[in-house]
Write a structure and sequence with these properties.
2 domains, globular, 9 helices, about 35% helix, OB fold (Dihydrolipoamide Acetyltransferase, E2P), five-stranded antiparallel β-sheet, single chain
Length: about 220
Amino acid sequence: MNKGLSLRQLAVQAGIDHSRLARIEQGTRPSPGLATSRTLAELLGLDLATLLVSAGTPREVIDGIVWSDRQDLGARHPEIATYDPRDSDLLRKNTFDVRVVTRADSRCTVRLGANTFPVFSFSGEDRLRIVIPPEAVVVFREDPRPALGHSEGVLAMTIVKVRQLGGATNLVLEQGGIEINALLSREAAASAGHRIGDRALVMIPPAAVRTFPMEACE
């Protein structure tokens, strides 16, 4: 398994019965609750949204989970409660028109500037409009690829702006003239010590990216 864990080791560390986990993996038992899914994602070094998609969770449910997380953050930090991940200036800035480079069923690789990264698209079109939720962008100071076991969706970028939005921190990252906005909790940004001019590795979870056929946008 990913991260070198056997199914039994993963079950023990996640606090879930081994036989139940085996049935979940085989698709004969429903996915566990959100808390257990988060634990499994952390143990496997996976993005939660990607794990949920692989388990068959509908995209609209994943959007609801992201929205729920943001509402919870807003409740604890009233000064940013007006941030709505479904419609924001940062979301509009993270909207790009791209071309599909490779396709394997619904999983595509798209090109954005000099970078390529995977997304999910069910349209079959070669031109897509993609929307990257800033709260889904993960920023690393150290290379996460050895721990992840892959380099998909990991981009090398430079921090060009650091802005405070109430209790959150907005990082603007640039590479080859393309800017991507990330939204972190203030505590996480302060702990990482992100500064303007720093090089960073950015991970964009494929399942978090919203895709639309360009024909529908024109």
